Amino acid sequence: MPIHVRAEPGEYAEACLLPGDPLRAEYIAETYLDNAVQRNSERGMLGYTGEFEGRPVSVQATGMGCPSAAIVIEELVQLGVKRLLRVGTCGGLQPDHALGDLIVALTAVPADATARHYIGSDQHCPTADWELVHAAVHAAKELGQPLRVGPIVSSDIFYNPDEGQYERWSKRGILAVEMEAAILFTLGALRGVQAGCLLTVSDIVVEGEFTRISDDELRAAVDRMTRVALATVTAAGSAEPH
What we know:
Layout: E1 15-18, H1 22-32, E2 34-40, E3 47-52, E4 55-60, H2 66-78, E5 83-92, E6 102-111, H3 113-119, H4 130-142, E7 148-155, H5 165-171, E8 176-178, H6 181-191, E9 194-206, E10 209-212, H7 215-235
Parallel strand pairs: 1-4, 1-5, 5-9, 6-7, 7-8
Antiparallel strand pairs: 2-3, 3-4, 5-8, 6-9, 9-10
Helix pairs in contact: 2-6, 3-6, 4-7
């Protein structure tokens, strides 16, 4: 039994959604999964397994930041999870973003130390599994959900002391900043599992201004993202990782 995700092999489905927030994991399980059973509560990191449209699916909180996410991802892989899809929030970096926009990440600039600890001094481009990206785009189209596809950045820092960094990222075409995708993509490659990331724009950080979404708008946007995510991981279940 792993140390932090206290479950036995087989208690988690091969497909697992990864919100950062434990309460969001609980909400997804209670709202979208049939026959949901809680599988983990260690350190408040709630995890559940149930069914979505007859297909087994799990949801497990990762906490905030790549170090916490790395522990959870490693242990989920030990438990037999093969498709891991982050469902999180992010700060939008492009001026044409709107609060509540959905983003499918292709790559994640590793502006964190955790991914570097895994790959050492080698150059590295953490990249999402293409099948999950393709399935997410298709699912969003089927559900009539607009989305953006492109690069994001994973940062160690929420309260960034470098006031110009967001603008530099924006000018390089980075769509958003968040805190977990780089290690998810890195471990997906290293462990031979599928890894993807869907993000809801909860903040917009452009041109020196910060705008935050309301709680009600965030809840509605997360619901839209979750529906796309569940369709994605269940549709992508029949193929091998790439």
